[in-house]
Specification:
Blueprint: E1 2-7, E2 13-18, E3 31-32, E4 35-40, E5 44-49, E6 53-54, E7 64-68, E8 80-86, E9 94-98, E10 101-102, E11 107-108, E12 111-114, E13 123-129, E14 140-145, E15 155-156, E16 172-173, E17 176-177, E18 183-185, E19 191-199, E20 205-209, E21 213-219, E22 222-230, H1 233-238, E23 240-246, E24 249-255, E25 257-259, H2 261-265, H3 268-308, H4 312-322, H5 337-347
Parallel strand pairs: 18-25
Antiparallel strand pairs: 1-2, 3-6, 4-5, 7-8, 8-12, 9-10, 9-13, 11-12, 13-14, 15-16, 17-19, 19-22, 20-23, 21-22, 23-24
Length: about 350
């Protein structure tokens, strides 16, 4: 501080104090004023203060901030305002974009205003700027905008509903699970994968009964839960249940798991049994053919021996009959026509011979 005192011709004094300082970025929000202290008779001391003032200090930017100015959660059809600013002065020019698309409408002095937002407006918004006094500064900011919404609801019980005045009426409103797709396996014991998707906010939590290896993915405004489990006998009989729930309610969706009938008909076990049956039938046919061949050979052998006269059974029977030894058993003698003719010739008279 440099003070100075000047005595005027009127006898009064003009007192001046000059403050000299090297301003830094830390002084950007400083408010200045000066105080004059003077004395009056009877040792009375008083003070008087000047008006306050601040300094428009220019300094380069080092970082940027991107903030959402809405104080309440953003719902569909709300107006949204986002502000991007740096820690420098003056503020540089800003650019706003989402998914690589620049915004021109709604941009003013570092702010971006969106009118009547839809659920499709949710996503990652970015802002960026360049300060030519500090080109090395990374002046970028991001906001992940969430738009709350609600789809047409199903209310249980369905209206119209009549009630007496003073009665208690309970209505249930669900977050909704999309249609379920049943599972198909080739055979019992195979692994089956089922997917259950739901929409709601806050994001729904999933519970599978029975449980398995579960994974959750987010596709836009939809949450998808996938479970992988073994298609045992209980699951093939009772199926699987998916439950989606959040703080506003829950919803259940059953899944059926069944065996592919085409695969069941043409299963390897059936093919094996068919091959086995075919193999057994072939064995029976071969055995019958062999037996027939053996029988034909046996018949041929008997016929050959009979033609040669080497079978003793016929001669023995003839001898027994000729000697008059007749057993109680019935004896049948087979004779050919030629033998009968010879016997007839022997019985004719001598002249006829």
């Amino acid at each position: 501080m440099v003070p100075s005192v000047v005595k005027e011709a009127s006898g009064l004094f003009t007192i001046t104090s000059i403050l000299m300082m090297h301003l830094k970025k830390a002084h950007k929000d400083s408010v200045f004023h000066c105080t004059v202290e003077y004395s009056l008779p009877n040792n009375i001391i008083k003070q008087i203060q000047s008006d306050t003032f601040s300094i428009n200090l220019h300094y380069p930017s080092e970082k940027a901030t991107f903030s959402l100015l809405n104080s309440e959660p953003v719902k569909e059809f709300d107006d949204v305002k986002m502000l991007c600013q740096t820690d420098g002065n003056p503020q540089p020019e800003f650019e706003f974009y989402k998914d690589g698309e620049d915004f021109e409408k709604g941009v003013s002095e570092g702010s971006l205003t969106l009118k009547n937002v839809r659920r499709s407006d949710a996503g990652l918004y970015k802002c960026s700027a360049i300060d030519f006094d500090n080109l090395d500064a990374n002046l970028r900011g991001e906001i992940n905008l969430t738009v709350h919404y609600i789809d047409p609801l199903s209310v249980i019980p369905k209206g119209p509903l009549s009630a007496m005045q003073g009665d208690m009426v309970e209505l249930q409103c669900k977050p909704e699970i999309e249609e379920a797709v049943d599972g198909v396996v080739d055979k019992e014991g195979d692994m089956v994968t089922l997917s259950c998707s739901a929409q709601g906010h806050p994001a729904p939590q999933f519970t599978w009964t029975p449980s398995g290896t579960q994974s959750v993915t987010v596709a836009g405004n939809k949450v998808v839960s996938t479970v992988k489990l073994e298609a045992n006998a209980a699951i093939l009989t009772n199926g699987v249940t998916c439950k989606a729930s959040n703080s506003h309610g829950e919803d259940l969706r059953p899944f059926k798991v069944y065996i592919n009938q085409a695969m069941k008909t043409d299963s390897p076990n059936d093919a094996g049994r068919a091959d086995k049956h075919q193999g057994g039938s072939s064995g029976v046919v071969i055995a019958v053919v062999v037996c027939v061949l053996l029988l034909l050979i046996l018949v041929g052998l008997i016929y050959f021996l009979n033609k040669k006269g080497k079978l003793p059974c016929g001669k023995k029977d003839k001898k027994d009959v000729a000697s008059g030894e007749v057993n109680n058993d019935i004896v049948v003698e087979m004779k050919t026509d030629k033998a009968n003719e010879e016997a007839g010739l022997l019985n004719k008279p001598t002249g006829q011979q």
